[in-house]
């Protein structure tokens, strides 16, 4: 976690900590939209059984894909920050030589 003093110093990034919170927020939204899509598909089955079935299946697939892609996006952002930290460590190591 980060301390409130980290907001006023530039020695440490707070984005990796914040990214994890945004990741869980995105997961919650994806699941809520997935549940909404499933209920919409089930209600649509009363009018058109095939269309409702397709809507329900696509909502389930969309939820799974949304969760996977949000994880990939969060990991990509964290990797960028980790690369920056490693490059900073290499730079500091070169200065010591």
How is this structure best described in words?
The protein is an all-alpha fold. It has one domain (14-96). Helix content is 80%, strand content 0%. It has helices at residues 15-44, 49-96. α1 runs antiparallel to α2. The longest helix has 48 residues, at 49-96. The two termini are 33 Å apart. The relative contact order is 0.12. The model has no long low-confidence stretch (mean pLDDT 89).
Short overview:
With 97 residues, the chain is mainly α. Helix content is 80%, strand content 0%.
Key words describing this protein structure:
about 100 residues; mainly alpha; 2 helices
Set down the secondary structure blueprint.
Blueprint: H1 15-44, H2 49-96
Mean pLDDT: 89
Please tell me what the overall shape is: elongated
Oligomeric state of the chains present here = single chain
What is the number of domains? 1
């Amino acid at each position: 976690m980060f301390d409130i003093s980290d907001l006023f110093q530039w020695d440490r990034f707070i984005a990796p900590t914040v990214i994890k919170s945004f990741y869980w927020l995105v997961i919650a939204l994806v699941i809520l939209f997935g549940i909404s899509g499933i209920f919409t598909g089930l209600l649509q089955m009363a009018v058109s059984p095939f269309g409702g079935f397709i809507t329900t299946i696509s909502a389930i697939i969309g939820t799974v894909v949304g969760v996977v892609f949000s994880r990939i996006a969060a990991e990509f952002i964290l990797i960028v920050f980790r690369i920056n930290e490693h490059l900073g460590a290499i730079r500091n190591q070169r200065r010591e030589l």
